[in-house]
Each structure stands twice: as C-alpha cells, then as structure tokens.
C-alpha cells in the first residue's frame, strides 16, 4: 500500500507540474494534468492486477 501511495503521489505532482508547464497563457491545463494522472492510476491498477494474479497462481491446493 505504501508503494501505491508513493507512486500515485509522485505522478500527481508530476502531472500538476506538466499541467503548469503546458498551460501557456491560461492558469492551468486541467485536461492534460487529469489525463496524465488517469494514465498513472490505470497503470497502477494494471500493475496491482498482474501482481495479484501471480500470487493466486502460485497457491496450490495440492499437498
């Protein structure tokens, strides 16, 4: 859970920084920042799903 929060926090700060850099004359580019943050959340979800799938396949009901 700590790794998840750390990576989501990192990508949150990164997406806010990119939103400010790409804003131009506007105050903040919300669509770019939210899009990048959504991609980070999807990536973390896929990583969690793959990791969970690996642990389920390692468990065996045979003795």
Give an account of the 3D structure.
It comes from Kribbella koreensis. By secondary structure, this protein is mostly helical. It has two helices and no strands. The chain has helices at residues 2-21, 30-58. Helix 1 (2-21) packs antiparallel against helix 2. The longest helix has 29 residues, at 30-58. It starts with a helix and ends in a 5-residue tail after the last helix.
Taking pLDDT < 50 over at least 5 consecutive residues as the criterion, the unreliable ranges are none
| Mean pLDDT figure | 82
Measure the end-to-end span: 31 Å
Strand content: under 5%
Structural class: mainly alpha
Biggest pleated-sheet summary? none
Percentage of residues in helical conformation: over 70%
Please trace the helix and strand order, writing H or E for each element: HH
Shape assignment = elongated
Total strands: the figure is: 0
- CA-atom Rg in angstroms: 17 Å
Q: Give me the number of helical elements.
A: 2
């Amino acid at each position: 859970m700590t790794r998840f929060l750390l990576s989501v926090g990192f990508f949150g700060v990164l997406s806010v920084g990119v939103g400010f850099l790409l804003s131009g004359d506007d105050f903040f580019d919300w669509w770019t920042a939210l899009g990048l943050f959504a991609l980070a959340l999807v990536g973390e979800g896929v990583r969690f799903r793959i990791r969970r799938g690996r642990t389920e396949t390692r468990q065996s009901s045979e003795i």
